Amino acid sequence: MRAETQRLDAELARYFKLIADGERKTDISRQVLCEQPNFESYACFRLLDKDRKGYISAVDILKFLSYPLDFTTRNNRAGEVAAEDMDCYKVVRTYDSKDPGRLSYVEYFFAR
Predict the structure, then answer these.
(1) pLDDT value of position 53
(2) pLDDT tier at 77 (50, 70, 90 boundaries)?
(3) How far apart are the two ends of the chain, measured CA to CA in Å?
């Protein structure tokens, strides 16, 4: 039984390390993006909120990531960004505060 507990502890530690590494990479990417002089957070929000509802949901993010468009050249690109429904839901759930499952622009802005 002790060996099983140690194995589970090690597996859990690896899992937490993967989460921490992912959070670190995300934070670095977010900082680099925000340092760009031409970055407009509201324009990015509107790209996600295509229906102009005033909020974005996990479905909006998933649709955006699967849309085959290269925003640097405005041409279609081959392939899609791999994203799972649950990943997009977790992103929204992490930053929504008032209305579960929805991110307002203010919540989106401060999530940066």
Answers:
(1) 93
(2) very low
(3) 44
- Domain encompassing residue 30: 1-36
Q: Which of 63, 103, 107 is closest to 83 using CA atoms?
A: 63
Q: What are phi and psi of 103, to 5 degrees?
A: -115, 120
Is 61 in the same domain as 30?
no
* pLDDT score of 75: 47
pTM of the predicted structure, to 2 decimals: 0.57
Q: What b/e sequence results for 69-79 when a residue is b if at least 16 CB atoms lie within 10 Å of its CB, and e otherwise? A: eeeeeeeeeee
Q: How many domains does the chain have?
A: 2
Task: Tell me the C-alpha to C-alpha distance, in Å, between residue 11 and each of 1, 40, 98.
Answer: 15, 41, 35
Distance from C-alpha of 96 to C-alpha of 65, rounded to nearest angstrom? 20
Euclidean distance between CA atoms 18 and 39, whole angstroms = 29
